[in-house]
Amino acid sequence: MTTDLETLATALYVRIDDSLAGTRRPGRPPRLTDAELLTLAVMQAVLGFVSEARWLRFARSHLAAEFPCLPGQSGYNKRLRAANSLISRFIRTLARDTDLWHDDVWTVDSTSVECARSRPTVKRSELAGWAGYGYCPSHSRFFWGLRLHLLCTHGGLPIAWALASPKTDEREVLADILTGDQDQLATHPGQTIADDKGVSRHLDAFMAGHGLTLLRPSHHSRKPWPGEHLLKPVRQLIESVNDTLKGQLDLERHGSRTPSGVLARVRQRIPALTAAIWHNRANGTPLTRSLIAYDH
User: Fold this and answer.
1) Among 42-46, 57-61, 138-142, 233-237, whose mean pLDDT is lowest?
2) Which domain holds residue 187?
3) CATH number of the domain within which 112 lies
């Protein structure tokens, strides 16, 4: 098996189509199947097409043989926004196919998702009330938007994610992520979570109640626990995952001004990263999260 975009798209389509076999939505079947829709969405994110109109023009010129029934921009947009459960199922299907799914240590972190810069844009944005002002330590700047909270394995494989206001306590978001999918905890009993958040009795009680172990830096007034120096490399891993989402998958160039639009654009990039990792692990590629072979 070779490592290029055509091979990734073919393998992806076959895997999705197989996983959806036997399931059919009521009513007239769409001309563009769900497997084709998800494959197109992943290819768009990997190739760096932020604009859906530009992507569909490119697809009609270069991918007409593979996708003969491409919808218009409006139809494509609506299908992506309605594919929430489908994409979540697709991410989990690919994740289970990799050996990284069985890792017993997960790490969690958040990164900024800027949604506006000018004050007039902030005032008229439909995101007002959900998005807000926050501070991004990685870039040493304030921003207006949301925070993407990502839970992943040591190999960078996304397990779960959430978008929340910068004002929301990240420890509360972590608890919601972990309980949002009961199958997630049922299949990983006794999981260890690496975090850098401060001390929280509520979070400690939550972790203990669900049989989870939380690894985090010691309070500055306490003596470091044995092996704490090994936590820093683990924490740096998810920083590199966030850099992949922003640098290679254009997370901050989503260009949306509505809640459903932001969710759809972010949701599109998570399966793109998952698909690249899934394909790289199947090929034995040394760089698990590398997208270089697929972005042209």
Assistant:
1) 233-237
2) 102-252
3) 3.30.420
